Amino acid sequence: MAVLSVTSKVLKSSDGTEIYADAVGNPSNPSIVLIHGFSLSSSVFDNVFADPKFSEKHYLVRYDTRGHGRSGKPEKEEEWQSQRLAEDFDAVVAGFNLKTPFVGAWSLGCTNLSDILSFHPPSYISGVIVITGFPYTASVPHIATPFALGVIPPFTSTGDTPLFQSTALAFVRGLTAPSFALPHATYRALLGDVMLQPRMCCARLLGRPQDPKGFFEAGKAGLPMLIVDGPEDVIVYGGRMVDAVNSRDHLDGYEGWENLEVVKIAGAGHMPFVEKPDEFREAILGFVTKVLLQKV
Fold it and tell me: Which residue numbers delimit the AB hydrolase-1 domain (predicted)?
C-alpha cells in the first residue's frame, strides 16, 4: 500500500497565535476539517488520516486548536474569546484554500462549531458532524457524565500533582469503551498530549464565554448535521446530544435542528473512529456523500 503524503503547515491566526495543521488527499476533492477534543491534539485522528478509503475521494484537514499540541498556547483571557477560536478555523480554511468544507468535531472540540457559526453564515461550511461531543459550551453540564465532570477540577488545578496524574490516567482510559484496550503506544501518545497543555490553557478553554445563537440559527436554516453516538461512551450521555441541538432555550422561534441525522455505532465508546473505524468511516462518508448529492 502506498504511503499517503501529508502536507503540514504552521499558520498564523489573526492575533498571531500559531496554529499547526496538516492535510492529506487531493485538494480538489471535497474537504473535511477534523477538530480534536479536550486536552489532546489532532493526532487522535491518525488512523483516519492513514485510511486511504477516507482520503481517496476527500481532502482531509486537521489542526491543533489553540492551547493544544503543536499550536500556540496563549494564556490571557482575551485570547480565548469565541471570535479567536473562529479565526483559528479561518486561518486553516485560508491556509489550505478550502471551499465550504465539512467540519467533523469530536468531544469538547464540538464547541468550536458554535464559534465558527457565530461569525459566519451557514453557507460558510457544507455540514457539521458532532462526534460524541458537546456542540456549545453551555451544553457541557447537561451532556457530560459525572466521570467527565470529575476530570475538570484536577485538570485545572496546579496544587495536587498526584491527583492530576491519576485523573489524567483515568481520563485517557475512559476515552474508549471498557471492553476496548487502547494500544499502548496510543495510550502514551494521548497522555503526552495532556502533558503538553498548560493548566491555564485548560482553565481558559473550559471557562471561555460563548453565545450559541449563530449555531441554532444555522440549524434553523437547514445546515446538515450528523451526530455520531457511541453507546458505550463514559464521557457523554449520547441521547442528550440530540436534546442539546434541539434545545429551544437559545433562539426564539426555534423548533429543532432542521436537517439532522443520528448514527449510533454499536460497541463504540467516546472514540468511535479508533474503536470502530470501518463503521465510523461508513457513517461519515455516507453523510458527506448524501449532502453533496443534494447540492447537485
Answer: 32-283
Place of cell 484496550: 181
Residue 35 pLDDT: 98
Q: How far apart are CA 235 and CA 232, in angstroms?
A: 9
**E strand or H helix at 248:** none
What residues form DSSP beta bridges with 34?
62, 104
- Contact of 213 with 118, CB cutoff 8 Å: yes
Q: Using only the alpha carbons of the chain, give its radius of gyration.
A: 18
CA gap 177, 243 in Å, rounded? 23
* SS3 label, residue 59: strand
pLDDT, tens digit (0-9, with 9 covering 90-100), for 63-108: 999 999 999 999 999 999 999 999 999 999 999 999 999 999 999 9
User: What is the per-residue pLDDT for 1?
Assistant: 42
In residues, how long is the chain? 296
Q: Determine whether domain 6-295 maps to CATH 3.40.50.300.
A: no
Render pLDDT for 144-163 as a digit per residue (tens, 0 to 9).
999 999 999 999 988 899 99
Decide if 60 contacts 34 (C-beta within 8 A).
yes
Q: What does the pLDDT look like over 14-30, one tens digit per residue? A: 999 999 999 999 999 99
- What is the average pLDDT across 245-260? 96
Cell (9 digits) for 87: 479565526
CA angle 136, 140, 146 (to 5 degrees): 165
Cα distances (Å, whole numbers) of residue 143 to 119, 192, 235, 267: 25, 26, 8, 19
Interatomic CA distance for residues 49 and 69, integer angstroms: 17
CB–CB of 111/130 below 8 Å?
Answer: no
Chain Cα centroid distance, residue 144: 15
d(CA 272, CA 265): 7
